[in-house]
Design goal:
Structural class: alpha/beta
Shape: globular
Strand order of the largest sheet: 1-2-4-6-10-8
Helix content: 10-25%
Distance between the termini: 40 Å
Number of strands: 11
Number of helices: 4
Radius of gyration: 17 Å
């Protein structure tokens, strides 16, 4: 049975632990994830440069937000035995030429060779026994909709009379509370 004490102990919005941190430094955001799973969904950043350090972790980064300024997005990675899933817009061009992929590291992108002329996302850094999965469009929407964070966002939006931003944060449309 859930008591008020149990709810306080299981609060998911606590202070970040040393294993999962996000630090903002001007136009650069640093995400550090060690031995855990972390999801950065929706409008989590407005920076165009993201530095990721991950060790034996799983990380999802949503890069579809309309709040990220126009231009190239640079994701600098240093990952060891980790999986990094990038949620990108449908027309995005992902450039992995500057990424070091020793050992059995790889980048999985089903639409890698499809012609596209959208936003450019440049991957740099080094992977060690790690992989990057690129998820686009509808599959990116489904990925966010089947998460605990989406359920919490939908409950918050319902309570506030708003629309959830997680399914597709690239849509800048007006929200009900903005119209008043």
């Amino acid at each position: 049975m859930n008591t008020p004490q149990d709810k306080e102990q299981h609060n998911t919005e606590s202070e970040p632990t040393p294993s999962e941190q996000t630090v903002t430094d001007g136009d650069t955001v640093r995400v550090e994830v060690f031995y855990t799973t972390e999801k950065k969904l929706g409008h989590w950043t407005e920076a165009r440069r993201i530095e990721v350090r991950a060790r034996q972790s799983s990380l999802q980064l949503d890069l579809r937000s309309h709040r990220i300024p126009e231009g190239e997005i640079v994701v600098h990675l240093h990952a060891e035995r980790s999986t990094v899933k990038l949620l990108v817009p449908d027309e995005a061009v992902v450039d992995e030429t500057e990424l070091e992929l020793p050992d059995r590291s790889k980048v999985k992108d089903v639409q890698r060779h499809a012609p596209a002329d959208g936003r450019r996302i440049r991957l740099t850094g080094r992977l060690q026994h790690s992989e990057i999965r690129i998820t686009r469009g509808g599959m990116a929407n489904l990925t966010t909709m089947f998460s605990r964070e989406f359920v919490e966002e939908a409950q918050r939006a319902h309570r506030d009379g708003d629309h959830p931003a997680l399914p597709d944060p690239s849509l800048p449309g007006p929200r009900p509370k903005d119209i008043a």
